[in-house]
User: Fold these one by one.
Assistant:
Number 1:
Amino acid sequence: MKTSKKILIKIGSNVLTLPSGAPNEERIKHIVEQVAFLKKEGHQVVLVSSGAVAAGRSKIEVPSSLDAISKRQVLASVGQIALMNLYNQYFTNHQLICSQVLITKESFSTREHYLNMTNCVEALLKCDITPIINENDVVSVTELMFTDNDEISGLVASMIQADELLILSNVDGIFTDHPSKPDALLIRDFDNEEIDLDNAISEEKSEFGRGGMLTKVNTAIKIAALGVNVSIGNGTTPNITAQLLKREAGTFFKAHFDKNKTAVKKWITNSGTFSKGKIFINKGAYNALLNNQANSLLPVGIEKIEGAFKKGDIVTILDLEGNEIGYGKASYGAEKALVLQKQHNQPALVHYNYLTIK
Ligand SMILES: Nc1ncnc2c1ncn2[C@@H]1O[C@H](COP(=O)(O)OP(=O)(O)O)[C@@H](O)[C@H]1O
Ligand SMILES: N[C@@H](CCC(=O)OP(=O)(O)O)C(=O)O
């Protein structure tokens, strides 16, 4: 077994926040203790930490005259620094250095941005620094926002080719029903269970959370398929990270690496939410793309095009009923694609190397 692993730990707001809304200092201290232990064992650790908005709420009262977006910006701006102060203090106590990395959706939107981000996190790890990542809530508003930090943790885990992603929440893992129900059972190994996600997982979020359990599960399924072991566990349990790594707690999603997923394809798989256009394809193109051969998407199979995408943008590929089939990087822009669509013997809009099927 590999002894030195790259481990990404995502910590939800509820793990870090007291019922009053103030940061739970003992909890943060213990998280850092666990990071120090993992680093002593030779592992590299990256944190994705929520909690800025909750921390801000406990420090200031924003005037009710402010609109919801401004309120969140003010709370995050005040809270992020309070949160990082605590992390910094506890890392320093262990003679360790941590750093702050604030990201937005744009940080992943083009391959250049993506490589920049990868480079930054890898450089910090080379310097033996523990990056603490959060969304830049001060500038990420409305449609510019990620769904939540679960989505970010998945993006970063696949970006740095992590071995393990540990998602820490305030429940022991995924249950067969809402955890408050008496007959709800903890699912230990996700792959061994037939579970009806829509019925098992309610939309409800815990008090300070944003995404809820469904985004955790969707992230876990997608990221495990990109070669990362994923565990969802209870961040309020002492030494939970060691238990999750030994598969002694939480819900586990085993990595099943698809050798055809190159680094570029991984980026494209993760970039669906940044798609700038929709390409509707006919039955022939559908069969060609789904037959497991290395086929590119040719204009002859394109029925309809939506969106003003440019060369290099991510586009979503759909069948004629509007079901999403996959994503790809456009070799040319919408203007040219509109001219070439339905024509034989034209260059591929999406080359196989830049195509991922869901
Ligand atoms: N089937 C389920 N199994 C586990 N948790 C569930 C389930 N259905 C809903 N939940 C809720 O999801 C919550 C965790 O999501 P969230 O509020 O986003 O937490 P976090 O702040 O840690 O990201 C739990 O507190 C729980 O109430
Ligand atoms: N970026 C926000 C956290 C948003 C979020 O996704 O929260 P959570 O669902 O608790 O992981 C903050 O720091 O308050």
Number 2:
Amino acid sequence: MAGVKRSLAAMMADERLLSPSIDPSDSTARSQSARTSAASSEYATRAPSPALPSFDGNMPKFTPDASIVFIGVRGAGKTTLAIMAASALKKRIIDVETAFQRATSFSSASYSKVHGPTQCQRKQGEVLQDVLQSNDSGCIIVCSWMERRVQGLLRQFATTNPVVHIMRSKAAVQEHLKVESGIKWATFWSTSNAFFRTCSNLEFFNVSESAATEQIQPSIRKSNMADLPPYLALKQAERHLLKFLSQIYPAGTIPFFESAYPLASVATDERQFTYAVELSVEDINQDGVDIEGCSAGADAVQITVGNIQNEWTNSTYREEYTKMANDITEAVGLVRRSSVLPIIVHIDHPQSASTTTTCFYLDLLSHVLSLAPEMMTVDLRLDDVAISKLSTLKRSSKLIGNYSPVENFNSWTSPKWMSLYQRAVQLDCDLVRFIRPATTMSDNFEVSQFRSAVASLPDTHVPIIAYNSGLLGRHSACLNPVLTLVSAKPHSPYDPKRDASILTAQTATNALYSSFLFDSMKLYVFGVNVSYSMSPAMHNSALEACGVPHRYEPYSTNSLSQVTHLIHDANFAGASIGLPFKVECITLADALSPHAQAIGAINTMVPIRQLNDDGTIPTGSAFFRGVNRAGPVRAIYGENTDWIGIRACIRRGLSPANAVRPASCGLVIGAGGMARAAVYALLQVGVRNIAIYNRTVENGKRLAAHFTQLLQKKEFAGLGAGTNTKFEVFTQLHDTWQSEFRLPSIIISCIPTHPIGDAPSPEFKLPEPWLGNQTGGVIVELGYKTLNTPLLQQAMEHAEQGWIAMDGLDLLPDQGFAQFELFTGRRAPRRTMRKAIFENYPDQYGRSNPEELRRRLQTMVE
Ligand SMILES: O=C1C[C@@](O)(C(=O)O)C[C@@H](O)[C@@H]1O
């Protein structure tokens, strides 16, 4: 049956496998191994899930409107997640238990008491069949029933639709259901999870708050978590779920969810010098490592499952499989919840694996695919049939064909490497990875020649990851362009068994500069008075964490003419633009990004040193290939990242109760460059009703007219509600909300929070009735020189009503992450940057107050 997650072992009972000692590039040996795979009945009987009809094709590609089913034990969080998914995917929720009650006027439990369990199960089957048949699109269907007929129906549904097993930690479910530990509970737990696994094609780990908190910031684990606003736990769960859903549905299915950060538009494997930080399942699950913290400078997280054994003395195959599958599910959940980086899952397939171990390995791989990681490795020593089967199951996950022998390996000059690469390509691997220890220095040059030979193959664009491990191999590891494995911290003492990741992202990046491949560059923040700017602290800490030797400095000036020599310097790498130059600075730019054009203001300048042949600015991976290299500046490119920061604040601060709907209203205060970015951010989260308050009516009207015209252009028609978006301009703060729009749930203040020149600080507050929205909302104050502004105090006074206050220190890092990516081509180390701000921000007495500000780190959802 297509689409159902099931034992690969069972599925491939007659077709396997390899003899573990074969040379993987040797096709004679492969076919021999297929022939000698006699003991297949062993796999079938040891398979963890019940036998299912044979697999007959690809995993289905789900259409955007395909209904999704959430199954799992009671207390796993299905209903809460269904509400979030329904709001994001614009689908309707159907709870099968409610449908049962509607059909019979009884709950399942009462029906069972009256008519007996057999009759009740029959009825459940009928109800479910009816629900599935008549709602295969546009719905989120929730089901906790466990019954044979239910199982069959769900399996059938999984051939065309996503059926997600929602998992949660045993302790969290137990606490939720208030059940006592004991054999009965343990048995229920394992049988129910095994049951749901047999009829789902996907699995999602609903991270419990305590675990999530540990991931957020281990160093403040003991701090007062009671301060965490309740909506926040939901926000984090929502973000996590949406990341998962965006992996399984086609791109664009979740409106306004696509990342706007520059590197998100370029596939990781198309970029140069990228790193995957390696974390073990145990580190993640048991030790609660700070995932965000230790992935600074990395481009992906590799979750390594290292201890699959050849035999189990104290447990059965099934028990061992369940335990490891649960651990992997949890680790993927924790990483996805706390990091924006793509996930690679790698399971070590032992060099001398028994057939049972290989079978176990394959079962785990098919399980991994149900978690929808961005990438998964598969051992190229497996035979063609096994790898092809995995290719048919992979859906959006990329398959990395992996071969990393630790002994008896060929020299890089052997043609076997090339034939193994070509075999992996034929088997539909999306990337190929070869890692082997270096025995001499010349291995480093030979592997580089091998990479060049692959690059010069005609018509083959499958990226190759190839380098040597060990101390001697570091040279080739640093120069390997795609996803070199790095360690979270330096290994000490050197352990030859774990030598694949001797480097950290920081040391590997640093080596690119010390070997003159890249140049050390200069960065600035420009403004009339930027002495208070937190950007230097934020960017310099990020540069250091990533091993990039650039310097970022404040540059205060009254006139932009004074910066021209800086932006045409051979070592100029970019600048942030502060007040009041965001609009004027456009005159210095030769080209603007589409966002900057739409907004009509920039806060970022980047030098371009290599133009396209037609004189245009390179885009995508070509844009990033030009960074970090000194030389004459051919053009200045202007971008606006303020809107990205504002959008991130709206998303973080807006509780699920205030999710954007057609009638939602956003209020922007001010009409300058930042207000333009704010309106654009509102459009980018789907707000259709935008109110602008500005004292000077002409400026307010000009702002509204700018966006009204913009939305008439074809390329911006998808923003907000396009030409149906409405604007209103206010010049008076009336005591009542005099508008055809509903009361606002998003308020963005874009006026200065401190005195500028002779102009005093506006001490701005809103009339109380304007904050009358019943479920509150989010108020964002963009300035950060003064934090405790009258407006934010007002928001805090209305906290009970659901108002969330966000200030410029919430905004600054998010707009800075995007800048950092543009300046360096590296992923921004988000937590490092946030921390740097909190550690350097002076309070009203000019002292830094990290304790007070650090608590904010708790509330971050990346
Ligand atoms: O508005 C701001 C603040 C800023 O100017 C600063 O460092 O203060 C940096 C800019 O990138 C950003 O757009």
Number 3:
Amino acid sequence: EEQEEDVLRELRLFLRNITERLSLDRRFKAFTKPVDIEEVPDYLMVIKKPMDLSTLLTNIDEHKYITIGEFMADADLIWKNALEYNPDSDPMDRNIRHRACALKDTVRAIIRDELDEDFERVCEEIRESR
Ligand SMILES: CC(=O)c1nc(NC(=O)[C@H]2CNCCN2)sc1-c1cc(O)cc(O)c1
């Protein structure tokens, strides 16, 4: 009902705010757009579920996420994919891995500091009711 739509609208605003703040952070530039297959032609052979910050925003606008947990699962794909695709001692690999770990920690710190657990519980009740 209307109250549920109010809650989900507030969730989308919260998720857009997080995603836009991450997109502005220069450390995460490599994660802002889908990986360019011309640049890394073997990427889709290694990474089965690509994800990036612009795709997160599109998903939010398409009402894909009803809980924080669903958003986190896709946000986690970004840094997990980067660790998987960059396992070597190559300086480029190490650089991307550092940024991936920074992304992981930054998302978790924002959620811990800024998400009200009662709000998340209401979102999970809406998810269970559908
Ligand atoms: C996002 C990501 O995981 C990524 N990984 C890369 N790794 C490499 O190039 C390593 C792989 N091992 C051998 C030495 N090269 S480049 C790259 C990337 C960075 C961008 O700014 C845009 C983009 O589309 C992709």
Number 4:
Amino acid sequence: MYHYYCLNPISEVGIDAMTENYVPVSDPKKADALLVRSAGMHDMEFSPELKAIARAGAGVNNIPLERCAEEGIVVFNTPGANANGVKELVVAGMLLASRDIIGGINWVQENEEDGNIAKDTEKAKKAFAGCELEGKKLGVIGLGAIGGLVANAGIHLGMEVFGYDPYVSVDAAWRLSRNIHHAKTVDELYKNCDYITLHVPATESNRGMIDKNSLGLMKKGVVVLNFARDVLVNEEDMIDALESGQVKHYVSDFPTPVIAGVKGAIVIPHLGASTAESEDNCARMAVRELMDYLEYGNIKNSVNYPDCDMGMPGDNKRIVLLHYNKPNMLGQFTKILADDNMNIADLSNKSKGAYAYTMIDIDSDIPANVERDLRNIKGVLKVRVLN
Ligand SMILES: NC(=O)c1ccc[n+]([C@@H]2O[C@H](COP(=O)([O-])OP(=O)(O)OC[C@H]3O[C@@H](n4cnc5c(N)ncnc54)[C@H](O)[C@@H]3O)[C@@H](O)[C@H]2O)c1
Ligand SMILES: O=C(O)CC[C@@H](O)C(=O)O
């Protein structure tokens, strides 16, 4: 039996995919697994019971990844599951920034009682006119799940697209249209583009990447779109750029007290992934990842431990160990098993940065003293015996 707790509402599609072995609890401290969307977890204390956290979404800056790794808690996300939802809103954002659709709709509402509204429209509408996207230059920073879709959509809209991502994965690169220009430096993209859209994670090194220096390199009247995270943009510098006309519009999916209501800022209440399809996709993937880990120890799409998959254990017993990535860990594990005359049927060991994961299938029962001895090895962070 596994206990889970949802820190945010998670689509029923995911919850329904759980078997009767999964029971919701009303106290997160009693949970084997937590499901979360954007709830901040940095101030949460985790109980020793907690084995995994699944983020039904992409961004994991709301989760203390390092502390979780230290406590042997595997954190998953759902790469790509909400990418199409975000892509579509980015296209809407470019359109909102190109024509004064919002101003026009407001004008109609303000004049709803005007009996001559049809005639007056033809005089008033020039105030809300704009430009088309076709032929304009679009710069996409970050060419992962979302950025790749946005870049390809730009090509389909007839835009000239520049992409910048020095760390792009081979799979993501294969998905890109060959008509996208490969920007060798981000400055090249800043200098050339009419629309610049951010699709990078909110890592320490990416924080504040759009500031007065980068804004100063951009074309006057540029549109900047941020559907990634507020902290990527220095909002005070953005306000100066909007006031001076350097930036025509800043389209952001992240309201903050600083940017909400600023003239020229088009701020959306974090709706990028708020579609039925994205919510279902994320919930389904998050639950699948949790169940595979809790029941079989398989790790797929973890952000703090390596992926490692040995399928189902069949008739074997499986022991899984979360530990530091340092010499002689495997040697110590196998010695304890050999000293107890246990036969290893299968083994996998993977590492990611400072952390590592080992799965061992044994063709006999695993006695409690073996589990205890493994747990006592210096550098072992968590041990689970799965039946
Ligand atoms: N608005 C929303 O509702 C919403 C929804 C999903 C994701 N997001 C945000 O969007 C971000 C991206 O999501 P994704 O699914 O595309 O992630 P992803 O991991 O598939 O892609 C991120 C890409 O950014 C690249 N990158 C990292 N730092 C970079 C840099 N300095 N310059 C250029 N490229 C860089 C990486 O190499 C990677 O290819 C998430 O981290 C999250 O914060 C927001
Ligand atoms: O859960 C959400 O609504 C937003 C998720 C989004 O910001 C993400 O990073 O995936």
